[in-house]
Amino acid sequence: MIPSFENFQSRFVEEALDNINELESTLLELDLSPNDKELLEKVFRIMHSLKGGGGMFGFELLSEFSHHMENIYDKIRSGQLAVSSKLLSLTFQSVDILRDLVNVEVIESPEIKVRYQEMVTTVENVLKEEIQVQKSQTVNEGKLTSPNDIPEVTGMATWYIHFYPGAHVLENGTNLLYLIDELGQMGPLKAVPRLLNIPDLEGVEPERSLVFWDLFLSTDMGKAAIMDVFIFVEDDSKIEIQRLSQSDLFTQPQFIARLDTLCENKLEIELADLSEFMVDEPIEEGLAAPVVFDQLGQTSEGKKVTSSSIRVASDKIDGLMNMVSELVITQERLNVIAAQHQIPELKMVAENIQKLTGSLRDSAFSISLIPVESLVTRFQRLVRDLSCSLDKKIAFTTSGTGTELDKTMIESLTDPLLHIIRNSIDHGIEMPDMRKRKGKPETGSIHMEAGYSGANVIVKITDDGAGIDPAKIRANAIEKGLISKDDVLSDNEVLNLVFAPGFSTSKEVTEVSGRGVGMDVVKRNISAIRGEVSIESVPGEGTTISIILPLVLSIIDGLLVQVNHTQYIIPLALTDRIYSIGSDVLKDGFINSVTLNGIQYPFYNLRKELELNGEVPKRYQMVVVNHTDTRIAIAVDKVVGKIQAVLKPLGRMYHDQKVISAATIMGDGGIALVLDTNSIVKELLNPS
Amino acid sequence: MNQEDANKITSYLSFRLGDEVFALHVSKVHKILGMTEITEVPRAPAYMKGVINLRGNVLPVVDTRIKFGMTPSEKNKSTSILVIETSISGESILLGIIVDAVQAVLKIEAEDLLPPPSIGKQYQSEFITNMTKVKDKFYIILDMDAVFSSDTMLNIKELVDARESVTKDH
């Protein structure tokens, strides 16, 4: 690909969107701890790079807008302004408009210009207001200081800066000399380049940065201003800033002379050599700890690891998955041929290829999995925005968000989860005064938990709100004609009526939830990805909604079994063991239960349940299946063997088919049907 | 093939079910296969015969005779599976339909297409796109999307009646 401006531009857009996402999650953190200096810096830095990049790549509005926001955060971090919820809300709004401003199609539209103007006016107004409000507060509260902040000394000072640019810092087009020029404009500067790392000429790689600097600067602008000069390179570089003196040392001829000799004689400057000039600085243990902004591969708060990850377009991954599927089918074909011809060499090759395809398949899968965490920011944002507009206090927490799901599944899960959380905020969590009266903490909690359970992923949303009263549900369901007055239902069954189509408890349609789409849509969306959803609730204590999703992968290891001439596949991960019993054992008996090796199992006779006629074999094979700690036995005629099965959907014409979840093409071109053990267990244990 | 191109084509494939002959626009027909082994999918409506392997994909196959209220298909030399494209609730799917025999490709110009009998539901005219006359013989052109979107069984007798009522009018 020829690097072109468009290319750079689209790369900038991607990077900018990443930055904006990071901005959003940083703001959410900042909302919880508004005095965190590091988070503020991060917000500022993101605004700053959006501004710079936007200007460079032709997104003028983006650049202008982030300039406004940058100003605000500059004021905050320099202590002229404090973080307030109003400012945060404003910044959240700005996140939305920033997203639009990097969208090439959107910026062309006239509406965005109007929105942009409105937003800028709002920003200016809020800024003015905040300054007014906070000024009056400052008068009352005394001087406004942010914690963890070394009181900024204004006035002349001499600084020692050790600037060690990372090797790759030149790759984004930075000219380091400009940075040094910029420093030079702040006051008298002595820059000492260090050439220690420069190899012989043939070893020089022109794209790498090899020089580092010792810089001495006298300025009255403070440390933050110095740091700003390095803002674009600080991620890759090592920068140490140390104040030598609270005066301009360059006025002392001895200092300059000492510097000159030091630079000539020594390869590296040690601050101890200058200690005589640092009289007015408190030096602890001989040397004050320098402020180090060292980000060379370092992790700040476990995040932003310089992990070697790359971006890949999702259709490339889909393509890869398709090819792996084809490969698996072809490989099964090879197995069939190898079994037909008893050639030892061929068999060995076939086995090796089987092993390789297996691991290739697994790694291809792991590529297409995304952690649930990728959804969290959106939910946090929803909770924040909505609880603010409803005047409720809600803390949103998560656990187990490292649980991974297929990306298409994550996509189809987003809307249902948003809806459930919206419901919890709107109907579940009570107003703060109400909660107080009930003896609950004022701040409600919504917790999202994700985790694996056998071959399933379970996502639970729990709130500690008002809960649901089964009596109300019942009354409503009778009114809507979903059940009749005489129906006897357990509380649990009643609760699950909320998923029935045409059920909406809310009397009036609020703006937040109950826009005609109810829990039935949630259920439908989740059923579409073969998941299940259920609800538990204790009135007064809260509600839990659980979503159980099958870890459906498009290729599975399966156990191939046979009834009559049709072959079926049971997911191998779920099979425990296989017993052989006489077919007469299953014939009589009213309860579907069989004792195998001393343990009783409920059993599912595939021949009988699927109404497959044909001759009953002398012995059945009982395949014991473990489904979320429930063990059942499935009776089949014959166990054929192990197979890697590429799952192909049966399609719309079989959409009512519950027990068979998919089909697969066998090595000999035939078709085997994949059994959905979830449905079988459910059908066996809760016959309806 | 987009709709405009499809409309320019005046070819129709005719096939036989029992004694009756129907026609389908060729743009709907993807392939003609001989009868092969069909894997039965349990717990499906009787007319859903099963699935077959169509070049590495799973193709559902319908026993058209059962769907049209006739006795089940029997395998013989002329029995074929037509792979047709239908649109069911807006989703385009491929479907195999078993027919007793594939007959011919007919050229039917637009002006030879007659409207379905309008006498109402009794002839199940919602399943009929057009009627047509080729060389003094009348054919029913079926609306496959409608046939397979609905769970109702068709009645071959009513379809025959529908054709005969049109035959009489002309």
UniProtKB/TrEMBL annotation, chain A:
Entry keyword Repeat: no
Modified positions (Phosphohistidine) in chain numbering: 48
Gene3D superfamilies per the UniProt record, alphabetical: Histidine kinase CheA-like, homodimeric domain (1.10.287.560), Histidine kinase-like ATPase, C-terminal domain (3.30.565.10), HPT domain (1.20.120.160), SH3 Domains (2.30.30.40)
Ranges of residues in domain Histidine kinase: 350-553
Domain named HPt: residues: 1-105
One Gene Ontology term from the biological process aspect of the record: chemotaxis
One function term, GO molecular function aspect: phosphorelay sensor kinase activity
Keywords attached to this entry: ATP-binding, Chemotaxis, Kinase, Nucleotide-binding, Phosphoprotein, Transferase, Two-component regulatory system
EC number: 2.7.13.3
Catalytic activity line of the entry: ATP + protein L-histidine = ADP + protein N-phospho-L-histidine
Membrane spanning residue stretches: none
Record's GO cellular component terms: cytoplasm
InterPro entries hit by this protein: Bact_Chemotaxis_CheA, CheA-like_dim, CheA-like_homodim_sf, CheW-like_dom_sf, CheW-lke_dom, HATPase_C_sf, HATPase_dom, His_kinase_dom
Domain CheW-like positions: 555-686
PANTHER family associated with the record: CHEMOTAXIS PROTEIN CHEA, SENSOR HISTIDINE KINASE CHEA
Primary role: Involved in the transmission of sensory signals from the chemoreceptors to the flagellar motors. CheA is autophosphorylated; it can transfer its phosphate group to either CheB or CheY.
UniProt-recorded name of the protein: Chemotaxis protein CheA
From TrEMBL, chain B:
The species this protein was found in: Geofilum rubicundum JCM 15548
PROSITE patterns: CHEW
CheW-like domain location: 9-153
Protein name: Positive regulator of CheA protein activity
GO cellular component: a single term: cytosol
GO biological process, one term: signal transduction
Annotated Pfam families: CheW
